[in-house]
Amino acid sequence: MATWTPVYPAAVPIPVDLFVSKKHPGLNGDLGFADSLGNIVFKVNFDKLSKSSSKRVLLDASGNPLITVFRDGKGSWQGFKGGDSREDLIFRVKRTVKKLTRTELEVFLVGEISRESMPDFKMKGFAFQRSCTIYRSDSIVAQTSLMYKLHQIYAGRSKFRLTIFPGSVDHSLIASLIVIFLYGH
User: Fold this and answer.
1) Closest among 57, 22, 56 to 40, alpha carbons compared
2) Which residue ranges does UniProt annotate as crossing the membrane (predicted)?
3) What is the largest CA-CA distance in the chain?
4) pLDDT tens for residues 15-26?
């Protein structure tokens, strides 16, 4: 019996696509990030008590809190490790441009060796079209796009793709940044 050998070594990094929607089975209206097989990788709990809540919690597939994001002022957010506690700050996000068709955010990681004035990531896009690109320096780290189908003129905004490109960026960090960009109003 012949053995199969992959053409590329398994360690070759490839982009990861996650499909983002509130319509994944079993989510009860919460936002979900699913892999290509439909398995939920991340879930986002929005504070159901008020639509203008300033809290978003990114959960893993088992429901364990990974990152909690709090809005701390007009156009700025803070991300903390874990659940409700505001003890272990991971990142700060500041909005730099907010126009009708364009939004830009700067992301500062806490504990990274960098100058305070230089952001670790920049996010640019148009939230209404579910379009966001995350940059680290001049490299694209991740981007979102609507789900177009062949012969489709209009793409619905309820489901979109998040592509995370290879690198050393934590996928839960990227997912929480996408939630801020698209749902952080």
Assistant:
1) 22
2) 162-183
3) 64
4) 999 999 887 777
